[in-house]
């Protein structure tokens, strides 16, 4: 029996009812073995000397006292955490997006980012939804799962999806009145390649299941007689 | 039109209200004008108002208030489970339960299957129309 592992000790003084223990003070004194500690130490409890308190540096009295009492802000020990992920959403779950450009689209969940948003992909070839972030509140989680073991999503984080900061060009007077040259927002090639690599593994897994590809390509809509509160997703 | 299904000892009934909704129970005794003593293999024997029960066609052969073992044996002997599941009422309930538990993916697959079936039916119809035309 290893000396470090011990069975957790059960309570020595179980409650008869709340606030009333089974054993009296004197019985508990005996049970805890305080008499043995005293006997070992010659009739008194072992004492240790107080640690010498380092003398605090003498503070100068402040030069200025505010006229009215200044209130101190309350202590806030909260830590920022990503939104709690619903238990029904696990990597590979098929989600239904409820709002935005892709509303109704059925989409595969990849991972939750540190901001709390969900990283999601169509796959792009199947339904036109690229690698995208989506909020958990605007999503219905179905119970259909896709195998995502072959997919590596380590490199995607919130910075990947952030807006590109452009240097502001100073305009001279003449240029101000010219029509602003519209710079087309072309998707950089490396983002397209990322999409392709993520989707390749996913599509292979999706094609193993019959009808799953057409399912992901179709949009969800409520038809007559469907009651959302009674539907099992 | 006389009554065909009577409240009697051994009548199998379906619970239509309350905690045991949807269960099949056996009437083992009548308490008074409104209540019956009711029992089932998976519940504690207790009273139930007749208004909570819908009588079925099935009746088993038991004496008044049998013990659980005898009741279960009688249910097996009369093969209540299979009779119920093969009856049209029982089958309807099974289909309703299945429909309610369908996944979003299942509903999609059913839609595809319905379209396919309708296509085949329409093809046959077109063939028959052509022959008679």
Comma- or semicolon-separated keywords:
heterodimer, A: 233 residues, alpha+beta, two-stranded antiparallel sheet, 7 strands, 13% strand, extended, B: 133 residues, 5-stranded antiparallel sheet, 4 helices, 24% strand, elongated
Low-confidence stretches of chain B: none
Q: Rough shape of chain B? A: elongated
Number of strands of chain B: 5
Q: Give the helix level of chain B as a range of percent.
A: 40-55%
Please, how many helices of chain A?
Answer: 6
Q: Estimate what percentage of residues of chain B fall within beta strands.
A: 15-25%
SSE topology:
The complex is a heterodimer of chains A (233) and B (133).
Chain A: E1 15-17, E2 20-21, H1 25-32, H2 34-40, E3 93-97, E4 106-112, E5 118-121, H3 124-127, E6 132-134, E7 139-145, H4 173-177, H5 189-208, H6 212-217
Antiparallel strand pairs in A: 1-2, 3-4, 3-7, 4-5, 5-6
Chain B: E1 11-15, E2 24-30, E3 35-40, E4 43-49, E5 53-59, H1 68-78, H2 80-86, H3 88-100, H4 104-132
Antiparallel strand pairs in B: 1-2, 1-5, 2-3, 3-4
3D architecture notes:
The complex is a heterodimer of chains A (233) and B (133). In chain A, 21% of the residues lie in helices and 13% in strands. Chain A is built from 6 helices and 7 strands, in the order E-E-H-H-E-E-E-H-E-E-H-H-H. Chain A has helices at residues 25-32, 34-40, 124-127, 173-177, 189-208, 212-217; strands spanning 15-17, 20-21, 93-97, 106-112, 118-121, 132-134, 139-145. Chain A has a 5-stranded antiparallel β-sheet. Chain A has a two-stranded antiparallel sheet with strand order 1-2. In chain A, a hairpin with a 2-residue loop joins strand 1 (15-17) and strand 2. By secondary structure, chain B is of the alpha+beta class. In chain B, 45% of the residues lie in helices and 24% in strands. Chain B has 4 helices and 5 strands, in the order βββββαααα. The chains are: A alpha+beta (233), B alpha+beta (133). Chain A binds chain B through residues 94, 96, 106, 142-144, 211-212, 214-215, 218, 220, 230-233, and chain B through 100-105, 108-109, 112.
């Amino acid at each position: 029996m290893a000396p470090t592992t011990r069975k957790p000790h059960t309570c020595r003084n179980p409650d008869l009812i709340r606030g009333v223990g089974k054993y009296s003070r004197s019985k508990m004194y005996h049970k805890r073995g305080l008499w043995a500690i005293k006997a070992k130490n010659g009739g008194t409890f072992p004492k240790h000397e107080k640690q010498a308190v380092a003398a605090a540096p003498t503070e100068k009295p402040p030069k200025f006292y505010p006229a009215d009492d200044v209130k101190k802000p309350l202590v806030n020990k909260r830590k920022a955490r990503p939104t709690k992920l619903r238990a029904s959403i696990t990597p590979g779950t098929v989600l239904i997006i409820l709002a935005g450009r892709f509303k109704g689209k059925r989409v595969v969940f990849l991972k939750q980012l540190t901001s709390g948003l969900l990283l999601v992909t169509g796959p792009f070839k199947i339904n036109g939804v690229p690698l995208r972030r989506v909020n958990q509140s605007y999503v219905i989680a179905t119970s259909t799962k896709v195998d995502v073991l072959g997919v590596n999503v380590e490199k995607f984080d919130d910075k990947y999806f952030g807006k590109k900061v452009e240097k502001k060009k100073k305009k001279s007077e003449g240029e101000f009145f010219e029509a602003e040259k519209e710079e087309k927002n072309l998707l950089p090639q490396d983002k397209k390649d990322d999409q392709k690599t993520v989707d390749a593994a996913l599509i292979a897994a999706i094609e193993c299941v019959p009808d799953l590809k057409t399912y992901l390509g179709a949009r969800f809509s409520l038809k007559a007689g469907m009651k959302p509160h009674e539907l099992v997703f | 039109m006389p009554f065909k299904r009577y409240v009697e000892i051994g009548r199998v009934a379906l619970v239509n209200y309350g905690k045991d909704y949807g269960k099949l129970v056996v009437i083992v005794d009548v308490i008074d004008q409104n209540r019956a003593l009711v029992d089932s293999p998976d519940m504690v024997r207790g009273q139930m108002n007749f208004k909570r029960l819908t009588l079925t066609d099935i009746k088993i052969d038991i004496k008044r208030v049998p013990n659980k073992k005898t009741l279960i044996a009688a249910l097996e002997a009369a093969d209540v489970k299979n009779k119920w599941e093969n009856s049209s009422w029982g089958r309807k309930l099974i289909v309703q339960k299945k429909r309610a538990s369908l996944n979003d993916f299942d509903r999609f697959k059913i839609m595809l299957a319905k379209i396919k079936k309708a296509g085949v039916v329409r093809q046959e119809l077109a063939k028959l129309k052509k022959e008679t035309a």
